Amino acid sequence: MTATLSPWRVAANRFRPKPRKWASPGAMASAIDRGHRQTAMLARIDQELVELFDGKDDRGLMIFTPPQEGKSERVSRRTPAWLLAHDPTLRIAIVSYSADKAVRWGKQILRDVRAHPELGIVLRKDAQTAGRWETEQGGRLFCVGIQGGITGEPVDVMVIDDPVEGRAEAESATYREAAWDWWESNASTRQSSRFRVLLMMTRWHEDDLAGRLLAREPGRWRVLRIPAIAEEGDPLGRRPGEELASVQQRRRGYFHQLKELRSAYVFSGIYQQAPTVAEGNLFRRADFRYWHQLPADPSRHGPLSGGRIDLGGRAVPLDDLWRFLTVDLAASTKTSADWTVASVWGISPDGDLILLDRRRGRIEEAEHWDLVRPLRERWAADTVFVEAGWIGTTLVIDATASGVPVQPLTADTDKLTRALPATSRVKAHRVWFPAGVPWLDEWCDELAGFPSAQHDDQVDTLAYAARVVTMHWVRQDAAGPDGDAAASAGAAIEQAYTAATGGDTGGIDFMSLDY
């Protein structure tokens, strides 16, 4: 139990407004504003607000919803007016990342009070600035930014509306620490005997102000999280996958389409209000390494035309890589279904695993080869690895008919265990991703979110690739007794191949492959 919040329990029965003319902030808004719109989400927020201010629950309230759906309008504008209409002695603070944003709400509430005498809020004539005004009964509303603080002001109701401005601040340890210091040293010391607090913010980061409060003050907060796309146990009673009925009257499928356009990290934080671990779980972003394209070497005439890449200061010719594909297949084309993902890999002479390219799509089984073939042709990759259960599918039939070897990978463990060799290679900085490609965020976000991210199809292709190379790789420069480095390379590839497929080389002559 946190000492700074001890007044909350004492205050449980002290927040007793007079009988209300309007049952909720939404009911008041409907009465004074003919253009007001009510949605299921806003009705649910109203329910939580009424419970908070009826004295039935003395915990703080956190509200997390997608942006532009009326949350701030309901909480930062309508709720203070609703409260003061029923108890004009309340001292209310609106706090945001900047004073300007907070003052905008104060200005709007002041306009509402002046335009609607039926609210019954009588203002002091000598205290009516937009960011700080008072009632005749001693109540007041003041609007501040976090940096300005609430020095010397006792507070009955605190509305915290976005304590950080955006992703950059949320991902900055300095800004996160400043927000926490503000709460501990300033906000939590301003509590009156009937203190109530509401916190709204976009959940960019697990260790943001909301995340830290939930971790350090367990049992002191009630959380209402309404995602754009419903999950199990939805607070609005929606079925999983059902979209939010938007106050903006967005077209059907809007959020699902947006999900396809945004990276998993961004969509999960902004629209689902469920931040993934920015630094990563098993795959840590700090361990990710990226290769860059170098000018081609005109003296080389291999299938990749002398292309070269930079691996942290090492120039590696693409024709020196053994190139192969790993494919994770999905049979469904549903929006919520898994993806079919094809990844092209190279193994460097030093044994580094290099992601060269990737394609993915929600496609029918008959289209699998159409997804894979262009990658195989572009990178002159010789072998396609797929999970053993898909060996009899159209992909394998079409690939075999085209003369492309396809080999099975046995998925004999769960996804988490299967990914562990890949996590070790990434941690050792022996896996490289292409810098600057349009899909890089999608790739990195999925890896960082694994195993809790919604999808893991790309992770599977990495796990399979790691199986091809891990534990049985021998450096290509370790030549055999006759000095034939190529022979050693072929033997090393065969060892890796055997490790991945359980011993079946499919009759491939590894010494003849172009690696």
Overall morphology = elongated
Q: Under CATH, the topology of the largest domain is which?
A: Rossmann fold
- Biggest sheet strand order reads 11-10-9-17-14-13-12-15-16
Helicity, as a percent range: 25-40%
Could you tell me the radius of gyration in angstroms?
A: 30 Å
- Please mark out the parts with pLDDT under 50 across 5 or more consecutive residues, or reply none: 1-13, 478-493, 495-515
Number of domains: 2
Biggest beta sheet summary: 9 strands, mixed
Portion in strands? 15-25%
Mean pLDDT: 83
CATH superfamily of the largest domain: P-loop containing nucleotide triphosphate hydrolases
Description:
InterPro entries: Phage_terminase_lsu-like_C, Terminase_6C. With 515 residues, this protein is an alpha/beta fold. The chain has two domains: 3-270, Rossmann fold (3-Layer(aba) Sandwich), CATH 3.40.50.300; 285-512, Nucleotidyltransferase, domain 5 (2-Layer Sandwich), CATH 3.30.420.240. The chain is 33% helix and 20% strand. The chain has helices at residues 7-10, 25-32, 40-53, 71-86, 99-115, 167-170, 173-185, 209-216, 254-261, 264-270, 368-379, 394-401, 415-427, 440-449, 457-469, 485-501; strands at residues 60-64, 91-96, 123-129, 132-135, 140-145, 155-161, 191-200, 221-225, 289-294, 308-311, 314-317, 322-328, 340-347, 353-361, 383-387, 406-409, 431-434. The chain has a nine-stranded mixed beta sheet with strand order 11-10-9-17-14-13-12-15-16, sandwiched between helices. β10 and β11 form a beta hairpin. α4 crosses α5 (99-115), α13 (415-427) crosses α15 and α15 (457-469) crosses α16 (485-501). The N and C termini lie far apart (63 Å). Residues 1-13, 478-493 and 495-515 have low confidence and may be disordered.
